[in-house]
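Continuing the batch. This is chain 6 of the set; chains 1 through 5 are on the previous pages. Same settings as before, nothing changed between runs. Recording input and output for traceability.
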Amino acid sequence: MICKFIRTFRFRSRTQLDKADRITIERGLDKRKPCRQIARKLDRSPSTVVDLAAEADIEDVMLCDAPGILSFLGLPAETEMPPGNKGKTKLKKLYRKAAPNRAYHSGERAKSLISHLDMAKIRASAPIPLEEIDRAIES
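Output for chain 6:
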């Protein structure tokens, strides 16, 4: 199975993918190509495709544990969430509120923030079907 935040990609067979196949899949996912199109290119078919892209960004999911984010930033628990539709914009504003010279960085650089989040709380209230990923991994 290949998993990017926006989609999971699981093959019917449990055969190992060689490095070239993995690169093809990851490039296809990065370019947001449909999983079935990528599979046809490899002469395989995915058994499970979970498309999460239309639902929420990773920052929207992270904001499900607002107390954890506020605690990480050293802000009081009663701090109001900044207005806006996008989670990334809200996180940037919270970082600026915590310290004017501190900026939110996504990806690898967000590891320390992510490690402070309560994943059980996020799983319970996430705006996307995280249980679909669990089912894809378990099957």
